[in-house]
């Protein structure tokens, strides 16, 4: 029996199994990334943030020497820089981990 120019239904069934496995693998990778903690620093380690793969804050550490009452703006900048570095780490790791799946699924949406 022909199916739109393809051989029997076996090829279609195999493609469906491969697609399901790929979806399961992708969901597992997403879950793994979600539960991964990412740590980033700014100011040579004066400020350190830890985030989950979902970009939720786990911790923020500030060394006492980073706190200067006469220069609060510097501390604010260090905190922002540390968070931005953390977000960039998460984005990069997510892109690297999910990239292969995006290429395979490109024609399916």
In a nutshell, what does this entry contain?
The protein has about 110 residues and is an alpha+beta fold. The protein contains two helices and three strands.
Explained architecture:
The chain is of the alpha+beta class and 109 residues long. It has a single domain (9-108), classed as Ybab, Chain: A (2-Layer Sandwich), CATH 3.30.1310. It contains two helices and three strands. The chain has a three-stranded antiparallel β-sheet. The chain is rod-shaped, with a radius of gyration of 22 Å. The model has no long low-confidence stretch (mean pLDDT 87).
Q: How is this fold's topology laid out?
A:
Elements (H helix, E strand, L loop, with lengths): L8 H27 L1 E6 L4 E6 L4 E6 L9 H34 L4
Antiparallel strand pairs: 1-2, 2-3
Helix pairs in contact: 1-2
Q: Notable features of this structure?
A:
109 residues, alpha+beta, Ybab, Chain: A, three-stranded antiparallel beta sheet, 2 helices, 3 strands, rod-shaped
